[in-house]
Design goal:
The protein has helices spanning 2-23, 166-177, and strands at 28-30, 34-36, 39-46, 53-62, 67-74, 81-83, 90-95, 101-105, 108-114, 116-125, 132-143, 147-158, 181-182, 190-194, 202-208, 213-219, 230-231, 240-246, 260-267, 272-277. It is mainly beta. It has 2 domains: 24-179, Sandwich (Immunoglobulin-like); 182-277, Immunoglobulin-like, CATH 2.60.40. Strands 1, 2, 3, 4, 7 and 10 form a 6-stranded antiparallel beta sheet that branches. The protein has a 4-stranded mixed beta sheet with strand order 13-20-19-16, with no helix packed on it. Strands 14-15-18-17 form a 4-stranded antiparallel beta sheet, with no helix packed on it.
Length: 282
Amino acid sequence: MIKKAKNFALYFVAVLTGSLSLTLPSHAFEGQWVELPNAKARLLATGDPMTGSILAGLEIELDEDWKTYWRFPGDSGIPPSFDWSDAQNVASTQLLFPAPQRFTDEYGQSVGYKHRVVFPIEIELEGAGQPTNLQLDIVLGICREVCIPVTEHFSLKLPPIFVATEAAKTILTAATDTVPMKAVEAQQSEIKITERAGTTPIVTISVPSKLLIKDVFIEGPDTWFLSLPEKLPANDTEQLDIWQLPLDGTPIGKEPWGAAMRLTMVGTDGSFEQEFTLIEPE
Protein backbone atom coordinates (compact mmCIF):
# COMPACT_ATOMS: atom_id res chain seq x y z
CA MET A 1 0.00 0.00 0.00
CA ILE A 2 2.83 2.36 0.90
CA LYS A 3 4.63 1.53 -2.37
CA LYS A 4 1.50 2.32 -4.44
CA ALA A 5 1.02 5.61 -2.61
CA LYS A 6 4.66 6.53 -3.23
CA ASN A 7 4.40 5.70 -6.92
CA PHE A 8 1.20 7.77 -7.20
CA ALA A 9 2.92 10.70 -5.51
CA LEU A 10 5.84 10.51 -7.94
CA TYR A 11 3.41 10.30 -10.86
CA PHE A 12 1.47 13.33 -9.58
CA VAL A 13 4.66 15.38 -9.19
CA ALA A 14 5.79 14.41 -12.73
CA VAL A 15 2.43 15.39 -14.23
CA LEU A 16 2.35 18.64 -12.29
CA THR A 17 5.91 19.50 -13.33
CA GLY A 18 5.10 18.76 -16.95
CA SER A 19 1.96 20.92 -16.79
CA LEU A 20 3.90 23.81 -15.31
CA SER A 21 6.59 23.57 -17.97
CA LEU A 22 3.93 23.82 -20.68
CA THR A 23 2.61 27.07 -19.23
CA LEU A 24 5.96 28.79 -18.81
CA PRO A 25 6.43 31.70 -21.25
CA SER A 26 9.00 31.24 -24.01
CA HIS A 27 11.78 33.73 -24.45
CA ALA A 28 14.31 33.12 -27.20
CA PHE A 29 15.68 30.75 -29.81
CA GLU A 30 18.83 30.84 -31.95
CA GLY A 31 19.31 29.44 -35.45
CA GLN A 32 22.47 28.04 -36.96
CA TRP A 33 25.01 30.30 -38.64
CA VAL A 34 24.92 30.30 -42.45
CA GLU A 35 28.15 31.13 -44.28
CA LEU A 36 27.86 33.94 -46.85
CA PRO A 37 30.51 35.52 -49.07
CA ASN A 38 32.65 37.57 -46.64
CA ALA A 39 30.02 37.27 -43.91
CA LYS A 40 27.84 34.90 -41.93
CA ALA A 41 24.25 35.23 -40.74
CA ARG A 42 21.57 33.53 -38.66
CA LEU A 43 17.97 33.92 -37.54
CA LEU A 44 17.03 34.58 -33.92
CA ALA A 45 13.66 34.67 -32.22
CA THR A 46 12.32 35.79 -28.87
CA GLY A 47 8.92 36.20 -27.24
CA ASP A 48 5.95 34.08 -26.28
CA PRO A 49 4.05 32.53 -29.24
CA MET A 50 1.04 32.13 -26.94
CA THR A 51 0.52 35.90 -27.24
CA GLY A 52 0.27 35.71 -31.04
CA SER A 53 3.42 37.71 -31.74
CA ILE A 54 7.17 37.23 -31.56
CA LEU A 55 10.30 39.24 -32.30
CA ALA A 56 12.77 37.69 -34.72
CA GLY A 57 16.03 39.04 -36.06
CA LEU A 58 18.59 38.46 -38.77
CA GLU A 59 22.08 38.77 -37.30
CA ILE A 60 24.90 39.40 -39.79
CA GLU A 61 28.61 39.36 -38.98
CA LEU A 62 30.75 40.88 -41.74
CA ASP A 63 34.42 40.32 -42.49
CA GLU A 64 36.78 43.22 -41.87
CA ASP A 65 36.27 46.15 -44.32
CA TRP A 66 33.09 44.64 -45.79
CA LYS A 67 29.70 46.28 -45.43
CA THR A 68 26.01 45.76 -46.16
CA TYR A 69 23.28 48.32 -46.72
CA TRP A 70 20.43 50.24 -45.15
CA ARG A 71 16.98 50.43 -46.80
CA PHE A 72 18.28 53.54 -48.64
CA PRO A 73 21.79 52.55 -49.80
CA GLY A 74 22.94 55.97 -51.03
CA ASP A 75 24.79 56.52 -54.31
CA SER A 76 25.53 52.82 -54.75
CA GLY A 77 24.65 49.52 -53.15
CA ILE A 78 21.81 47.07 -52.83
CA PRO A 79 19.08 47.54 -50.19
CA PRO A 80 18.18 44.33 -48.32
CA SER A 81 15.13 42.40 -49.50
CA PHE A 82 13.28 40.00 -47.16
CA ASP A 83 10.77 37.45 -48.53
CA TRP A 84 8.62 35.53 -46.02
CA SER A 85 6.21 33.99 -48.54
CA ASP A 86 7.17 30.42 -47.61
CA ALA A 87 6.87 30.92 -43.85
CA GLN A 88 4.22 28.96 -41.96
CA ASN A 89 1.98 30.40 -39.23
CA VAL A 90 3.15 33.93 -40.08
CA ALA A 91 0.42 36.51 -40.73
CA SER A 92 2.59 39.62 -41.14
CA THR A 93 6.15 40.88 -40.65
CA GLN A 94 7.62 44.32 -40.02
CA LEU A 95 11.32 44.74 -40.79
CA LEU A 96 13.06 47.32 -38.58
CA PHE A 97 16.31 49.06 -39.50
CA PRO A 98 18.95 50.01 -36.92
CA ALA A 99 20.47 53.47 -37.29
CA PRO A 100 23.00 53.33 -40.15
CA GLN A 101 26.23 55.16 -40.91
CA ARG A 102 27.60 56.95 -43.98
CA PHE A 103 30.56 55.61 -45.96
CA THR A 104 32.56 57.64 -48.49
CA ASP A 105 34.90 56.12 -51.06
CA GLU A 106 36.01 56.65 -54.66
CA TYR A 107 32.63 55.39 -55.91
CA GLY A 108 30.57 57.92 -53.95
CA GLN A 109 28.66 57.78 -50.68
CA SER A 110 26.70 54.85 -49.33
CA VAL A 111 24.67 54.14 -46.21
CA GLY A 112 24.77 50.94 -44.20
CA TYR A 113 26.64 48.84 -41.67
CA LYS A 114 30.08 47.39 -41.08
CA HIS A 115 31.29 44.63 -38.75
CA ARG A 116 27.89 43.49 -37.45
CA VAL A 117 24.21 44.34 -37.72
CA VAL A 118 21.00 42.79 -36.42
CA PHE A 119 17.75 43.56 -38.26
CA PRO A 120 14.80 43.15 -35.84
CA ILE A 121 11.62 41.70 -37.36
CA GLU A 122 8.25 42.05 -35.65
CA ILE A 123 6.09 39.02 -36.50
CA GLU A 124 2.36 38.54 -36.02
CA LEU A 125 1.35 34.88 -36.02
CA GLU A 126 -1.67 33.42 -37.77
CA GLY A 127 -2.38 31.18 -34.79
CA ALA A 128 -1.26 31.88 -31.23
CA GLY A 129 0.43 28.96 -29.53
CA GLN A 130 0.90 27.04 -32.79
CA PRO A 131 4.17 25.72 -34.26
CA THR A 132 5.83 28.33 -36.48
CA ASN A 133 8.25 27.78 -39.34
CA LEU A 134 10.22 30.90 -40.22
CA GLN A 135 11.25 30.56 -43.85
CA LEU A 136 13.17 33.61 -45.08
CA ASP A 137 14.71 34.35 -48.48
CA ILE A 138 17.02 37.35 -48.51
CA VAL A 139 18.88 39.40 -51.07
CA LEU A 140 21.78 41.43 -49.66
CA GLY A 141 24.58 43.51 -51.06
CA ILE A 142 27.87 42.66 -49.34
CA CYS A 143 30.53 45.04 -50.57
CA ARG A 144 34.09 46.29 -50.31
CA GLU A 145 35.64 47.59 -53.56
CA VAL A 146 33.09 45.51 -55.46
CA CYS A 147 29.55 44.63 -54.47
CA ILE A 148 28.47 40.99 -54.28
CA PRO A 149 24.71 40.36 -54.54
CA VAL A 150 23.97 37.56 -52.07
CA THR A 151 20.84 35.40 -52.16
CA GLU A 152 20.31 33.02 -49.25
CA HIS A 153 17.59 30.99 -47.55
CA PHE A 154 17.13 30.80 -43.77
CA SER A 155 14.89 28.49 -41.79
CA LEU A 156 14.00 28.41 -38.10
CA LYS A 157 11.32 26.14 -36.64
CA LEU A 158 9.67 27.37 -33.46
CA PRO A 159 7.50 25.13 -31.28
CA PRO A 160 4.58 26.69 -29.35
CA ILE A 161 6.99 27.01 -26.43
CA PHE A 162 10.73 27.11 -27.03
CA VAL A 163 13.76 27.09 -24.76
CA ALA A 164 14.95 30.47 -23.55
CA THR A 165 18.48 31.71 -24.26
CA GLU A 166 19.60 34.89 -22.60
CA ALA A 167 22.11 35.50 -25.39
CA ALA A 168 19.44 35.79 -28.10
CA LYS A 169 17.20 37.87 -25.87
CA THR A 170 20.07 40.28 -25.16
CA ILE A 171 21.00 40.52 -28.85
CA LEU A 172 17.46 41.33 -29.98
CA THR A 173 16.83 43.79 -27.17
CA ALA A 174 20.03 45.66 -28.03
CA ALA A 175 19.15 45.65 -31.75
CA THR A 176 15.69 47.07 -31.08
CA ASP A 177 17.25 49.83 -28.98
CA THR A 178 19.30 50.97 -31.99
CA VAL A 179 16.21 51.47 -34.21
CA PRO A 180 15.47 55.22 -34.55
CA MET A 181 12.49 56.37 -32.50
CA LYS A 182 9.71 58.58 -33.81
CA ALA A 183 10.74 62.15 -32.98
CA VAL A 184 8.52 64.00 -30.54
CA GLU A 185 8.08 67.75 -30.94
CA ALA A 186 11.19 68.65 -28.92
CA GLN A 187 13.31 66.35 -31.08
CA GLN A 188 12.04 67.49 -34.46
CA SER A 189 14.06 69.44 -36.98
CA GLU A 190 12.92 72.48 -38.91
CA ILE A 191 12.79 71.78 -42.64
CA LYS A 192 12.73 74.54 -45.25
CA ILE A 193 12.60 74.38 -49.05
CA THR A 194 14.34 77.10 -51.05
CA GLU A 195 13.90 77.47 -54.81
CA ARG A 196 16.91 78.48 -56.86
CA ALA A 197 16.62 80.10 -60.27
CA GLY A 198 17.58 77.76 -63.06
CA THR A 199 18.39 74.80 -60.84
CA THR A 200 16.82 72.36 -58.38
CA PRO A 201 15.29 73.41 -55.06
CA ILE A 202 17.34 72.84 -51.93
CA VAL A 203 16.17 71.32 -48.63
CA THR A 204 17.62 72.81 -45.44
CA ILE A 205 17.42 70.73 -42.25
CA SER A 206 17.97 72.57 -38.96
CA VAL A 207 18.59 70.12 -36.11
CA PRO A 208 18.72 71.20 -32.44
CA SER A 209 22.39 70.89 -31.37
CA LYS A 210 21.35 69.44 -28.01
CA LEU A 211 20.31 66.22 -29.77
CA LEU A 212 24.00 65.48 -30.60
CA ILE A 213 23.11 64.32 -34.11
CA LYS A 214 26.09 62.99 -36.11
CA ASP A 215 24.41 62.51 -39.47
CA VAL A 216 21.08 62.85 -41.25
CA PHE A 217 19.47 61.05 -44.19
CA ILE A 218 16.43 61.93 -46.28
CA GLU A 219 14.26 59.43 -48.15
CA GLY A 220 11.56 60.14 -50.71
CA PRO A 221 9.34 57.89 -52.83
CA ASP A 222 10.86 54.63 -54.11
CA THR A 223 11.32 56.04 -57.62
CA TRP A 224 13.50 58.91 -56.37
CA PHE A 225 17.31 58.73 -56.30
CA LEU A 226 18.34 61.36 -53.81
CA SER A 227 21.90 62.10 -52.79
CA LEU A 228 22.98 62.55 -49.16
CA PRO A 229 22.68 65.80 -47.18
CA GLU A 230 25.87 67.72 -46.45
CA LYS A 231 26.54 69.47 -43.15
CA LEU A 232 27.25 73.21 -43.17
CA PRO A 233 29.90 74.85 -40.95
CA ALA A 234 28.78 75.13 -37.33
CA ASN A 235 27.02 78.25 -36.06
CA ASP A 236 27.01 77.91 -32.28
CA THR A 237 25.06 81.12 -31.73
CA GLU A 238 21.91 79.54 -33.17
CA GLN A 239 22.37 76.22 -31.29
CA LEU A 240 21.45 74.43 -34.50
CA ASP A 241 23.25 72.02 -36.78
CA ILE A 242 22.44 72.62 -40.45
CA TRP A 243 22.37 70.12 -43.31
CA GLN A 244 21.40 70.84 -46.92
CA LEU A 245 20.25 68.60 -49.76
CA PRO A 246 19.62 69.65 -53.39
CA LEU A 247 16.51 67.90 -54.71
CA ASP A 248 18.32 66.16 -57.54
CA GLY A 249 17.15 62.68 -58.40
CA THR A 250 13.42 63.38 -58.56
CA PRO A 251 11.51 62.19 -61.66
CA ILE A 252 12.11 64.42 -64.66
CA GLY A 253 9.13 66.55 -65.67
CA LYS A 254 7.22 65.93 -62.45
CA GLU A 255 6.89 68.41 -59.61
CA PRO A 256 8.10 67.03 -56.24
CA TRP A 257 5.62 69.02 -54.15
CA GLY A 258 3.33 67.00 -51.93
CA ALA A 259 5.67 64.00 -51.75
CA ALA A 260 5.85 62.14 -48.44
CA MET A 261 9.41 62.22 -47.05
CA ARG A 262 11.28 60.71 -44.12
CA LEU A 263 14.17 62.27 -42.22
CA THR A 264 16.42 60.01 -40.14
CA MET A 265 18.70 61.65 -37.57
CA VAL A 266 21.50 59.46 -36.20
CA GLY A 267 22.93 60.64 -32.89
CA THR A 268 25.36 59.64 -30.15
CA ASP A 269 22.62 59.57 -27.50
CA GLY A 270 19.76 58.33 -29.67
CA SER A 271 18.40 58.33 -33.20
CA PHE A 272 15.09 59.71 -34.46
CA GLU A 273 12.80 59.62 -37.47
CA GLN A 274 10.59 62.45 -38.64
CA GLU A 275 8.07 62.37 -41.47
CA PHE A 276 7.34 65.49 -43.49
CA THR A 277 5.82 66.63 -46.77
CA LEU A 278 7.58 68.62 -49.44
CA ILE A 279 5.75 71.93 -49.61
CA GLU A 280 6.35 74.27 -52.51
CA PRO A 281 7.93 77.53 -51.25
CA GLU A 282 5.86 80.66 -51.67
